[in-house]
Every structure is written in C-alpha cells, then in structure tokens.
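Researcher: Re-running this chain for the archive, since the previous output was lost when a drive failed. Same request as before.
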Amino acid sequence: MGNWWSKHEERIRAAEENVRQAQTDAQEANKTAQELNKRTATMMGEMQAREEEFNAQSQQIKESQEAIKQLEATSKNAAEKADRALQKVEEAEKAAREAKEEAEREASSRIEVERCWKAGIQPEIFLTDEEIQEMKKRMQYNDSLFHFAVAGISGGGKSSIINAFRGLKNKSPGAAPSGITETTLEITRYPSADPELPFVWYDVPGA
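Model: Regenerated structure tokens:
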C-alpha cells in the first residue's frame, strides 16, 4: 500500500508543481503586458506631440503609427498569453484536486476492502456488458432454455441438490462432484439429464 500511495503522492506533487509553474508564467505574462501597455501609452503621447510639432512630416507619423500598431498587437498577444496561462493555472489546479480526490477515494476503497476481507465479507463484483457476454458465451447460454444457478456456503450440498434436480445420484456418471468440503472451484454448467427438459443448472463455488 506504501508504494501505491507513493505513486499517488508523486502525481499530486507533479500536479502542484504544474500549478506553481503556470502561476509563475501567468505573473510573467501579466508583467510583460503591463510594461507593453506603458510603452504603448508613451508612444501614443509621443505621436500626439509629433503630430502637433511636425505636421508636415507625415512619413514619421506613419512610422510611429505602425510602431504603435505593432506594440498594440504585441500587447494583445501578451494579454492573450496571460489569459491562456491563467487558464492553465485553473486546469492544473483542477487536475491537482481531481488527483487528490481520486487518491483519497482509492485509499478509502482499499481500506474498506481490507476491512471486509478481515471481517470475512466477500466484495460485491459488478460485471461489465462485455464480461456478461463473454460469460454467456463460456457458459453456452441459450435463451430457449431455463437457467438455474445454485449458490450457498461451502460444503452445503449445492452439488447434491443439482444432482437431485437432474434425477441423478451423486455417484452417477455425469453427476456434479459432491463432498462434505467444497468441491466446486468455479462455476460449472450441468444440462438436464433428460434432453427433453429445457433446464440447465449451474453449480456456484461456496461463499
């Protein structure tokens, strides 16, 4: 469990490091945007002064205007970069929270499973649709037949009951193995001894 928890701690630390890095990038991008805004304001003031003083020097004004456009574009790009950096911060924080929550859920689940095992409680297992189809295929499931599964405690006589329903004795050929100890280690399929009867029996390992 220590190695398992260490892996989750590494994931959490990595996520937290990404958060810190994203925050640093966002701060740098914001600082750059502010500096560019100041430079843009300065250039605007200079342009206005030149327009008043050098009304005849249209070429210089055009160059200043082009420079301002470029600075504005750069400032806009810096602002967009800052927004993206902030978005990454949020995503990294969300990933860190999810990683921590997942680790806590898995740790809680593992503790609960261990508690159940120590208490002798068998865990509940829910099969996926794919697993159900595979089980049906392996058990030769047929919709035209009636299927019965017999379950109970180990050595409780499940196999003997199946043999009785099939009209067989425990020692008869084809009978389900029986004994005072658990003899069934996996689910076993037993068709009816009479082929005219549409019944199939399944011997389930004891709990």
